[in-house]
Amino acid sequence: RFCRPLVLASLPMMATGEGIAPALQDSWGDFWLFRFFVNAAGYASIVVPGFLLIQYFKRRNYLETGRGICFPVIKSCVFGSEVKSVHQDDGSLPPRAEPTESSTARQVFKLLFCAAGLQASYLTWGVLQERVMTRTYGATETDPGEKFKDSQFLVFMNRILAFTVAGLYCALTKQPRHGAPMYKYSFASLSNILSSWCQYEALKYISFPTQVLAKASKVIPVMMMGKLVSRKSYEYWEYLTAALISVGVSMFLLSSAPNRTVSTVTTFSGIVLLAGYIIFDSFTSNWQDALFTYKMSPVQMMFGVNVFSCLFTVGSLLEQGALLESLRFMARHSEFTAHAVLLSVCSACGQLFIFYTINQFGAAVFTIIMTLRQAFAILLSCLIYGHTVTVVGGLGIAVVFMALFLRVYARSRMKKRSKKLPPGETPVQKV
Asked: What is a single molecular function from GO for this protein (predicted)?
């Protein structure tokens, strides 16, 4: 708790008046911006000493002069083997298993297994995510119950199980020789923690369907960034689908505006948190893509990122005293304990299904399955938690998913066409 007074002094006065909805903000400790800075200060207390140690070992040329029992650990964490694969694709994903002549029925069964596993994992995860963050526990006729407020603890629960599953998988199966310096995973880990935190926190301010549509539309900022920073060129259908997604999201948001009971500030907080999610998540995927230049498997990536995620989150929770508070909440409410554990199981299993599906059927099939999952998630949320969607809002949702399916179809056609191009010709870059 040592960093709370410092953060409190640095926050603007906007939160002292009518800026924060009383139903959502009981104290400074419940203000999302305050918690964000407190969490960031906790991560910095681990990152800064780690950075200084890494610089110290590099300046001392420890790789040449180091000795003793600590040398292998320091070498692995700071230097690695520094052997990169010749082609980036070598380390990203294992070569996709091509369908054999065994039987079409077996391939269909595998596809149904992958689709069912992904849908069950992530639909359950989405329903539980909304339940944990928006509903109370322990409510009775005389007691309204209490809400669980610490999103960081849920991130920690997810990461500790994912770390365990990935570690067991790496120990029991043959993996490529690891070459990346371990500290490089910390960048993707930090952005992954922050993106997950923003995702959980945003549900306090906006509805789950709004969150799903915002995540589906992140292709737009990705294209803008590629155009401005990387000077990429895009096909006409990419601009068309991006425009359709924008129109669909706008239809949904504008049609829902008159029915909202939350304040403008609350809505603005949700938008800021969603923007934070998209930014951090985009950085995570791009940094992981760069790390795959080292020869590693996706499960090794999952293990490395989650090692640092567990370290950062447990360190920050201990410094704030929030770990014991969350454990006490679990002791008071056994229903929350079941939800938190199941949430973590779904997250870990979902990651394994992602790797298996892409390995067996490729990224296009995986994208179609996950796009369907987003549509089903909105439907389930509306049915279970009573979100109302107007006719115009429903049309907006349909436009978004039509654009996403059109994007998948056009990309698969372009890939087939690029394979038939004569040597030397390259298709236009795409995202």
From this structure: 3'-phosphoadenosine 5'-phosphosulfate transmembrane transporter activity
Distances (CA, A) of 78 to 180, 300, 311, 395: 9, 17, 17, 52
Residues whose CB is less than 8 angstroms from the CB of residue 275 and which lie 6 or more positions away in sequence, other chains included: none
Length of the chain: 431
Helix or strand (DSSP H, E) at 386: none
At residue 48's C-alpha, the angle toward residues 288 and 201, to 5°, is 60
Q: E strands within 217-296?
A: none
- Token pair for 304: 């490395």
Side-chain half-sphere of 224: how many Cα atoms within 13 Å?
Answer: 10
Residue 182: Cβ within 10 Å count: 17
Flag whether pLDDT at 6 surpasses 50: no
Q: Where are the domains of the chain?
A: 32-79, 104-135+148-416
pLDDT of residue 226: 62
CA 430 to chain centre: 22
- pTM over 0.85? The answer is no
Which tokens is 359 given? 């390995």
- What is the DSSP secondary structure assignment for residue 24, as one 8-state letter? T
Cα 134 from Cα 130, distance rounded (Å): 6
- End-to-end alpha-carbon separation of the chain, Å? 43
